[in-house]
Amino acid sequence: KDAFWHAKNVTVRNSLVKGEYLAWYSENLTLENCRIIGTQPLCYCKNLRLIDCELLDADLCFERSEVNAGITTPVVSIKNPLAGRICVPAVGEIIRDIPGANGEICIKGELAKETEENACQKTY
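RESULT FIELD:
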């Protein structure tokens, strides 16, 4: 629980990361090719990067975070990302209930139909 809270300048690769409230208030955290499991992960982060990561059973992700993420699995819910771009194959719920939650959320199309790696069918 609470792993990577207030972490700065950390890179994690090829790992299973499991816990509640993962990496809140982190800065310059990069997760690459990781499987992330737990509720309310990756909130209140600055310069957060996810590269080819899985989010499993993850709800209320990215609240008030500045994030650029390429996610390979559907996400339960995304809440109020402040800035950046989150690309997912599917998302159950997108919550925007504060001013300034301007992060882009895009739903990837089928890979065969995409013309570039991060192409999206719909942007929210």
